[in-house]
Amino acid sequence: MADIGDKLRSARKAKGMSIEDVEKITKIQRRYLTAIENNDFDQLPGDFYVRAFIRQFADVVGLNGKELLADYKSEVPEAKPEEYVENSIDNKSEKIKETTNSRKGMWRSYLPQIATVVGVVLVILVVYIVYTRFFTGTNQQSANQAENVTVSSSRIKSSKSKTSSKKKSTPKAKTSEVKIVSLGNNSYRVSGMKNDRTLTLGTTKNEVWAQILVNGSSVWQGTLKASGKHSIQLPQNVNNVSVQMGNSVSTTLTLAGKKVNARNSTNPASPMTIRFTFTGQNSQSTNTQQSSSTSQSSTNNVNTQTQQNQNTQNRQGTQNTQNTQGQTNTNQNNGGQSNR
């Protein structure tokens, strides 16, 4: 009769299993399984483990573990009661409970220390939050006050600069004020024109033919497209300007930045002429011409008087010469008579 190890080996091979396969299923180390197949039970940790391992081995390879142990009772060592109790499940459970209780006791012993550490951490956290909120609020309030002061000072500066600019610009506006007075029949009198001498003609919607005459001479003529403009610079010696337009449906006109009515309200489709007469800026040239004429007249008068004086002197000189010659002849005649 084969021993228990041979029977287990034959059953394993009949199943097509290797020692490694049995090891994976039973979780029994390979060396213990080999020792069981060789009936070398002294390699196992104890008699209890011999019977337990054989039973598991038999169940895996398709044998009945209890029957196998009963059949080979004489070959398999009996487990001692003390060893059985020591390795029983209840005994192991008790050991596990003892280990668990010991760990619980260890944690309980550390609980006061843990609670102290947690309390200190909480106190530090609360102090930090209060500190940051207090000083952050103070800094924010200071920053807002500084910002308000900066804004108010900038507003004061801007208001002062605006006031000073207004004060500075007001006299300039008065000195460079251009006056355009309507004389009726699309005629205007212009005075006070200084640096800005721009005349701009434009149209918004319709095309318009136009011509600009300065002092009676045409300086520009052409057709303005819709939204078109044309500007000219008036000379210093301008006396009169005429703006002739083929229609005034959508025409615009500005002189020195001032708008002038360039629309015939009764018949905008008919031709229209606007005339400007300039005063003030030509008075100086007129006075200059008059002064020049006066100076020239004075010079001519002086030259005439000088010429007359020269002629008078020449006549007097000729007369004196003739008188001297006459007196000499008389003296000679008198001398001749005395000698006789």
CATH architectural name of the domain at 180-284: Sandwich
Q: Could you list the spans in which at least 5 consecutive residues all have pLDDT below 50?
A: 82-86, 171-175, 282-295, 324-340
Predict the CATH topology of the domain at 180-284. Answer: Immunoglobulin-like
Strand content: 15-25%
Number of helices, counting only DSSP H or I runs of 4 residues or more: 8
> Residue share in helices?
55-70%
Q: What is the highest CATH level, the class of the domain at 180-284?
A: Mainly Beta
Strand order of the largest sheet: 1-2-10-7-4-5
Radius of gyration, in angstroms, nearest whole number: 69 Å
Shape: elongated
- Secondary-structure content class: alpha+beta
**Largest β sheet strand count, sense and barrel closure:** 6 strands, mixed
Distance between the termini: 231 Å
* Residue-averaged pLDDT: 76
Q: How would you spell out the order of helices and strands? A: HHHHHHHEEEEEEEEEEH
Number of strands: 10
Question: Keyphrases for this structure?
Answer:
single chain, 340 residues, alpha+beta, 434 Repressor (Amino-terminal Domain), Immunoglobulin-like, six-stranded mixed sheet, 59% helix, disordered C terminus, Cro/C1-type_HTH, transmembrane
